[in-house]
Amino acid sequence: MLRKNRMPEHHRASNNANARRARGAPALCLALALAASSLPASAADDAAPRDVSGTAPNASAGGAYAVAEHGEHLSPQFRQRAWNDIRDNARKLKLAAAPRSSARSLGGFAWPLALNNGLADPGYHAISNYVDQAGAGQVLDYSCGARSYDGHRGTDYYLWPFSWYKMDNNQVKVIAAAAGTIVGRYDGNFDRSCSVNNNNWNAVYVQHADGSVAWYGHMKNGSVTAKGVGASVAQGEYLGIVGSSGSSTEPHLHFEVYDANANLIDPYAGSCNGLNLSSAWAAQRPYYDSAINKLIVGNAQPAFASCPNAESPNENTALRYGQQASFSAFYRDQLNGQQSQYRILRPNGTVFASWTHNGPAPHYASSWWNWTWSSFAPSGPAGVWRFEVAYNGTTYSKNFTLSP
């Protein structure tokens, strides 16, 4: 289960006095531009470009999701029903469980998400919650941090940016982390949940050759694999589309793993993982998996609607001389010490504008920053331009055209 809470004031930013207020539901809020006059000077300056060279933007804005959880939302009764189904189906299928002495031995998992339906962005997700290692009123993740909530038994991967837009357009699919047999399959349930509830989810449970079981939950209604209980799935095979079914506040994948003895597994190895010693991943991603998920060029800032309405990316890569032009970058796991170097390049490779920026908070699970020119390049030149960001050792770019 995933919840987005309203972001603290000091994590919102804009230096545009005419910027619009964010729209949001109580459980979901993305930081959008706010009037500078309503913010402390330090907050209004959060999105301001540094070391500007060339033509400076007229306005800047940005902010981050504030990700928090407040209690376990897969109830004991829900879990008991799930385990009853899994065990009944495994028994009917005569699936052999691994010897009890082999508990907690897992490995070789593939990443459980993939691009789909033409999406070509460099990234598409962020992590809100890892497995809680502590429980009993305490929170501790595998790396000795607190990126979880009390009692959370899985890993939550939410879509970022534009989670509802991505869900509606089937842009991120859930795939099998390991080969196995389907021992539970649920579809046909409501998938636009915005709050904690008792609804059933759309999910697939897969039992692996060693007797371990992976749960894939919250998928989109009607998207779950047509394969039924008893069918085999290969590693990397399609299971469904990321959605918001069941007790959920935004489209995300809840990924939960148990060994052959039904002991909870945290697939991430770390110094505070007391559940299992080794990583379940073939290639474990870092705790702070810092990257840019998307760059956008358009005539207006992206627009974020209240849950469960789809966002409007407002992407337009065919600009005209002197029009308003908006440039946005969407990050995951942005750290304050990581400087981004921005450039807008003319068709001949010369620099129209360059600047640097650091996120003001020590860590953002997901963040976005925007710079706008009210009248972009009124004299051209025409041709193919490039918006470019160098961040954390990688250069990301987005081409756009400019014409009279």
Automatic annotation (TrEMBL):
Region (Disordered): 1-20
Keyword Transit peptide: no
SUPFAM superfamilies to which the protein is assigned, alphabetical: Duplicated hybrid motif (SSF51261)
Catalytic EC class: hydrolase
CDD domains: M23_peptidase
One GO MF term: hydrolase activity
Enzyme Commission code(s) on record: 3.4.-.-
Biased composition (Basic and acidic residues): 1-12
Keywords attached to this entry: Hydrolase, Signal
Signal peptide interval: 1-43
Presence of the UniProt keyword Signal in the record: yes
Domain called M23ase beta-sheet core: residue spans: 172-267
Pfam assignment, any one: Peptidase_M23
PANTHER family per the UniProt record, alphabetical: MUREIN HYDROLASE ACTIVATOR ENVC (PTHR21666:SF270), PEPTIDASE-RELATED (PTHR21666)
Protein name per UniProt: M23 family metallopeptidase
Species this protein is from: Lysobacter yananisis
